[in-house]
Amino acid sequence: YITVDTVEEILYVLLKHFSKKSYWELKNDHELAKKIYKEILPLVQSLISTLFKLVQTTPSISNVLFDVCEEYGLLPKDALIFSTCVENNINYLITFDKDFKNLKNTKITIISDYQELSLQ
Known about the structure:
This protein is mainly α and 120 residues long. Helices cover 59% and strands 8% of the residues.
């Protein structure tokens, strides 16, 4: 599974990586952004449509989001990703974000290392 928020993060990281520009430079150089998108979007779209099912947020997710923020102290974007897993009964979350590492006693298994993938 993948969320629209995660797709947004992937696009942003790739845009920054390939442009070698800061956020403000990219924000003000639409032509550069369009050039890079033209190169990366076909690959990203293909990978996402082949490997993942897109999961949407629901109106009721805000209640879960507030609980997750309060209980775990995650920043809002991370809390939204985690809440989406909870709301959709997703049992595994693959992430390199160290903020998720401290989540204990949850029904969601956090996988943060490629070696953990083979154990699941």
